Structures are given as C-alpha cells and as structure tokens.
Amino acid sequence: MQEQLVPVLLGGAVGVLALVTVGLAVALWRGRVHTRAELARAREEGSELRAEMAALEQRLADAAAPAAPEQRSDYVITRFGEAEDDAAEAPVVEGTIDRALFADLVLRETVVRAGGLAHGLRRALSPEVRNRIRFEVRREVKRSRKQRRSDLREARRAWEAHQRSGIRLDDGDAA
Fold first, then answer.
1. Residue 164 above 70 pLDDT?
2. To 5 degrees, how large is the angle CA 91–CA 93–CA 95?
3. Where are the domains of the chain?
C-alpha cells in the first residue's frame, strides 16, 4: 500500500506545483498587461500636457510681444517753455498711479509712521521705563564717582612717590 501511496503523493505534489506555476504565470501576465496599459496612459497624458504647455507658452509669447515699451525721444521732465494748454494735459505713462491713490498712500504711510512714533514715545515715557532709566543713571554716576576716586588716589600715590624719589636724589647729590 505504501508503494501505491508514494506515486499518488508525488503526482499530487507535481500537480499542485503545476497549478501554482500556472497561477504565477497568469498573475505575471496580468501584471504586465496592467503595467503596459498604465505606461500607455502615462505617455498619452504626457503628450497632452506637452501640447497644452506649448499652447500656453505661445499665448504668453503673443501677450508679451505688444507690451514692449515704446522708445520716446521727446521725453522731458518739465514742460518749461510750452503753452499752458499743453502743460495742463498730463501724459499718462504706463506704471503711474492716480493722484488720489498717491495721496491716499502717502497719507496712510504718514499715519502709520505717526502711530509708530506715538507708540514709541508712550512706551518710552512710561513710569517703568523712566524708573529703570533713573536707576541706571544713578548706578552709572556711582560707578563714575568710584572710578574718579580710585584714579585720584592712584595719581596722588604716583605724585607722592615721585616727590619722594626727587628728594632722595637731591640728598644723594649733596653728600
């Protein structure tokens, strides 16, 4: 009986191996088909994006071409010597802003700076800051007094030492 069981088990193992191999081959084939389809879609999408980008670049190039600044040889800073009628009509130069907008911007900047200055003054003149300044000034005055006293003592010692050395020289010459 064992002799009959071995070929059956062996045949079953070979059959299972064959089924696993076929299953793996089918899975590999389906994976390749899926990968090829994804690659084809990616290539198609890439070509569409390239075409769209070329169209955008062309549109930008067309829009930028007429925006080139004109070279004016008659540009002057002042209208001195011209008739008043011509001077009253100010030319509109590209990139300029309206007078009202300019005044508004200047006024806003002035208000912001004035507000900043007022805040700084209010903070600088607060009681805490004044007290700290007073403390620092007193401390600096004390330090400078101590320094002056020590400098005066040192100068006095040096002068006295110089006086003593001068007396000894005179005594040595007389003997």
1. yes
2. 150
3. 1-64, 97-174
